[in-house]
Write a structure and sequence with these properties.
Radius of gyration: 17 Å
Oligomer: single chain
Distance between the termini: 15 Å
Number of helices: 9
Number of strands: 8
Strand order of the largest sheet: 1-2-3-4-5-6-7-8
């Protein structure tokens, strides 16, 4: 089955058809979905969503874009939710974004470390966003080496960051960017070992070809699978199999807990 390791199902762009979106994903062979939180309030919405839908799990955390608005009570609320909501299975989305700089950089780094400490304390994995911040992201990974494990989602960084993350035992996840004609990350896609690679849509963002420019959704993770397979010179079936196995292991889930089908997934929609 396909495993959608990173999507934002609580985003307002899914308000009109959220349940239908999840069912379309299951129909497309997506057995498990991880809905990612961007703030403490969003994590509460994610928790409610996971209780209402089969095959959906979630995370709790504060995105770096929210760093300027988040306080200590937000991190504490994240901790509380992770303690009481069994279907919240990771810490994040956290990390650093120096491209948009929506939050002060020192506050982004402070929150990133707070999330890493929380991951180390709980044993839950860390979901990390990093854009135009390779050196500082790599420094935090090194600081928590052996204490916190994580994934660099929607990877677009340089080979130095990739090597630092892999050396620390981290996973790497790729999105529909791999299907874009101007995608320049082929070297990184090929460099990730089979047991450390995951796939995601990051929907509603970054719709893969041929849906580029429209709202993305979890069913399209099959297109990401196909794009990764093409770059790596592997079959789609191989990528689907090992990326799902990696995601189940990373998030501490069992395949028989998934809500979709274990049969071979249909052609990409």
């Amino acid at each position: 089955m396909l495993f959608e390791s990173h999507c934002h199902l609580t985003d307002r762009r899914f308000d009109a058809d959220r349940s239908e979106t999840i069912e379309r994903a299951h129909a497309a062979g997506v057995g498990a979905l991880i809905s990612i939180a961007s703030s403490a309030a969003d994590a509460e919405r994610v928790a409610a969503l996971t209780r209402a839908h089969r095959g959906v799990w979630g995370t709790a955390g504060v995105h770096p874009h929210e760093a300027g608005r988040a306080g200590a009570d937000d991190v504490e609320r994240v901790r509380e939710l992770l303690e009481v909501e069994p279907r919240l299975v990771a810490v994040g989305e956290t990390g650093l974004d120096y491209h948009y700089d929506f939050g002060p950089r020192d506050r982004q780094r402070e929150l990133f470390r707070a999330h890493a400490r929380l991951a180390a304390e709980t044993g839950l994995p860390l979901v990390v966003h990093s854009r135009s911040a390779d050196d500082d992201t790599r420094a935090v990974i090194a600081e928590f080496r052996g204490a916190a494990r994580g994934v660099l989602h929607c990877f677009t960084g340089g080979m130095g960051l990739l090597e630092g993350a892999l050396d620390a035992g981290w996973h790497i996840s790729f999105t529909g960017l791999v299907t874009f004609r101007n995608f320049d990350g082929q070297e990184a896609v090929r460099a990730v070992p089979r047991d450390r690679l995951m796939i995601e849509t990051d929907s509603p963002y970054l719709a893969p070809v041929p849906h580029r420019g429209r709202r993305n959704e979890p069913a399209y993770v099959a297109r990401v699978r196909d794009g990764v397979a093409a770059v790596r010179g592997e079959s789609a079936e191989e990528v689907e199999r090992y990326s799902a196995r990696n995601a189940f292991r990373f998030f501490g889930l069992e395949a028989d807990e998934a809500g979709g089908t274990a049969e071979p997934s249909p052609a990409a929609p």
